[in-house]
Design brief:
By secondary structure, this protein is an alpha/beta fold. The chain has 15 helices and 19 strands. A hairpin with a 5-residue loop joins strand 6 and strand 7. The protein binds flavin-adenine dinucleotide.
């Protein structure tokens, strides 16, 4: 082992010891207090979390710290949860390195602590942004040091609330299929957590071999020597373009509807603890106005991502080029825009994500009953926004609400802790900046609901509680004096 490797390992061991000490000083995790249930000889989980990315892990730690047991199920192999080491193609995180992410207020659990413990303060100061794969390494460490119970390669195939106050999860794993029962379920299913890729309808008629969405798992090596078109101009568009160019694409044309790239990240500028705490309590008009404004302004790709593309002379940024039509011409595509017709061999739609229940069979039972913002709020003319209208209208603990009261009893036992919660709660349910705040709000909400449901049991426990503080030999009863007793007669 090299000297640097040994010192990194020692640094990390010391950090882990400190973290254990911090948790011990804070008496965390709290003792389990949720009454244990067994149904049909099967133990019932307090909470099942679907998704073991940063949101699912932060949620599970927050629950465990409140004394609520939480088991995570994730369909991915261990260490490959979320986009970071799978479908993401940026070189570094887009967000600044100083964000404390899922650390939940524990300094020793931050990325910075993990990084400095291994590479030192100078390396931290020299670091510009966090390398993408290093973020995944940090998340793997996070899972290990917080000793989370994550069941990988476990896909949740169906979720069904039951009339008896439980939620049934149908899980497929390498060992076979099983049904898990939980009192509450958290869906920490990611950026596309209630749907999938948003692709314009004109892609429907194209041969699937000639196009991809930027979030598809794809070997970009197959683009070597090809003329590639990218639709869109956000961060993922730049990442796809850069990756295609580095893979040896003959040419990459980025076809951009706008006449220029947005330059200001409005979301970043507006972030502050007031917004994090206060969005939930804003009137609907303000929630909508703020989220719609951020959507319309759009988030610019990071400067480094654009430069990664523009350093290639065979990359072109074509502005004012919305797609009018696409014709298939043998093995290639003719993409018609107001700026010209482009002959391309492969198209990548970098057009974002949407709520789309039809592509998530696991939600087939619950989807028809979920109330969305479409039913809650009618925006003023000019402020229509499909993303916001399609988002679920959630309660204060991120729980789904019924479209028709009583339509699917138990639906509110399912908590939506993924991106579509944003219009209700603000950006607390996925992105790095406020994920800890979201996880703590979620866990406290669930703790309160579980306590309320079991109040009779807790009251009985209160009555039955018999651990004496005093055994009776700590004092001797005294007699009042004669004068004091005489006072009663006066
Ligand atoms: C390409 C890309 C780059 C990003 N870069 C940044 C950035 O730099 N900074 C930032 O703040 N945010 C960024 N984000 C946004 C956000 O931080 C990420 O999407 C992040 O992964 C969200 O974490 P998560 O835990 O909510 O979801 P994920 O990390 O996506 O985890 C969700 C997990 O749920 C699992 N899952 C889903 N459905 C099921 C099911 N039915 N059964 C079992 N498991 C299931 C998935 O396999 C996945 O592992 C980026 C997003 C993308 C897509």
């Amino acid at each position: 082992m090299s000297e640097a490797t040994t010192s990194a390992a020692n640094g990390l061991a010391a950090l882990e010891a400190r973290l254990r000490q911090d948790l011990a000083w804070l008496e965390l995790p709290a003792k389990s207090w949720v009454p244990q249930k067994t149904v049909d000889n099967q133990p019932v989980l307090d909470v099942a979390v679907i998704g073991g990315g940063q949101a699912g892990m932060a949620a599970a730690v927050s629950l465990l710290h409140l004394g609520i047991n939480a088991v995570i199920y994730d369909q991915s192999p261990a260490g490959f949860e979320g986009p970071w080491a799978t479908t993401a193609r940026m070189e570094t995180l887009r967000s600044p390195k100083k964000l404390t992410g899922p650390a939940l207020g524990f300094a020793a659990l931050t990325f910075r602590a993990w990084f400095e413990a291994q590479f030192g303060l100078d390396a931290w100061e020299a670091l510009d942004k966090i390398p993408r794969l290093q973020w995944m390494d940090y998340l793997r460490w996070y899972r290990k040091v917080m000793a989370l119970d994550v069941r990988n390669d476990h896909r949740m195939e169906l979720i069904r609330p039951r009339a008896d106050g439980l939620v049934e999860l149908h899980i497929a794993a390498p060992s076979g299929k099983s049904v898990v029962l939980a009192r509450r379920v958290v869906l920490a299913t990611g950026r596309d957590g209630l749907g999938g890729a948003l692709v314009p309808p004109l892609a429907d008629s194209l041969p699937r071999a000639l196009w991809a969405h930027s979030s598809d798992d794809m070997d970009y090596g197959k683009l070597a020597g090809k003329r590639v078109g990218i639709i869109g101009a956000g961060s993922s568009a730049m990442d796809s373009a850069g990756t295609a160019l580095e893979a040896g694409a003959e040419r990459v044309d980025i076809l951009i509807r706008r006449t220029e790239l947005p330059r200001i990240n409005k979301g970043k500028g507006s972030g502050n603890p007031g917004l994090t705490s206060g969005h939930l309590n804003l009137p609907d008009e303000w929630k909508w106005r703020i989220r719609h404004y951020v959507n319309v302004q759009q988030i610019p790709p990071p400067s480094g991502s654009v430069q990664r593309v523009s350093k290639f002379s065979n990359a072109r940024f074509i502005f004012g080029a919305p797609i009018d039509a696409i014709d298939v011409n043998g093995d290639s595509l003719r993409v018609r825009t107001p700026r010209g017709v482009f002959e391309l061999d492969f198209l990548i739609f970098s057009t974002g994500f949407r709520v789309d229940w039809t592509v998530r069979p696991e939600f087939a039972v619950i989807a028809p009953h979920i109330r969305s913002w479409r039913a809650r709020y009618m925006p003023p003319p000019g402020e229509e926004d499909a993303e916001l209208s399609d988002s679920p209208d959630l309660g204060r603990a991120f729980e789904f609400q019924q479209k028709q009261p009583g339509g699917l009893p138990g639906l509110e036992r399912i908590h939506c802790f993924c991106y579509p919660a944003t219009i209700t709660h603000g950006t607390l349910s996925g992105d790095i900046p406020a994920i800890s705040d979201g996880a703590q709000r979620l866990a406290q909400g669930i703790a309160s609901l579980l306590y309320g449901e079991d109040v009779e049991t807790h009251y009985r426990n209160l009555q039955d509680y018999a651990e004496p503080e005093l055994v009776g030999d700590e004092w001797t009863p005294s007699e009042p004096t004669t004068e004091e007793r005489e006072g009663l007669k006066r």
